[in-house]
Design brief:
mainly alpha; about 150 residues; two-stranded antiparallel sheet
């Protein structure tokens, strides 16, 4: 019987250790595999198999036709159209109120019955710039709060 724990013979034909084979041979095989897959998918040969091409097909169609004719004619008489035309004239009278003398205006909203939605409306009316106390002045027209709107 031989000793199972005996050292391997020293005259082996190995020239590289095991880690070197794993380090160089396996990556080389992986690169060869990827190159082979790339060549296989390159599409050099574009022939299609006969199973992929659709061929002519035969279709048999049977049609049965049965005719039955029934005709009923109904005529409806439209109702007479009535057109009503009327005109109504309306007159309105507006009485102007006299301006109240004295008191001036209040300082918080400018007083007066003029209102400008924005500065474009004030400029169109020719009232820009609008100062505190002027008719049409509002805080929404004064961005910096210095008392002069639409500068």
């Amino acid at each position: 019987m031989t000793n199972p724990y005996a050292a391997p013979p020293t005259g082996s034909a190995r020239t590289a250790p095991g880690w070197a084979r794993k380090r160089y041979v396996l990556p080389a095989l992986a690169v060869a595999l990827f190159i082979g897959v790339g060549i296989g998918n390159s599409g050099g040969d574009t022939t299609e198999s006969a199973a992929a091409k659709p061929g002519p097909t035969t279709t048999v169609t049977a049609t049965a036709t049965a005719m039955r004719t029934a005709t009923e004619t109904v005529t409806a008489t439209p109702a007479a159209t009535v057109t009503v035309r009327s005109t109504k004239t309306v007159r309105a009278t507006v009485t102007a109120q006299p301006a109240v003398a004295g008191g001036g205006g209040s300082d918080d909203n400018g007083g007066g019955s003029v209102y400008y939605e924005n500065c474009a409306a004030a400029r169109a009316a020719g009232a820009a710039p609008v100062h505190v106390g002027d008719p049409g002045y509002g805080r929404h027209l004064d961005r910096d709060g210095d008392g002069v709107g639409c500068e």
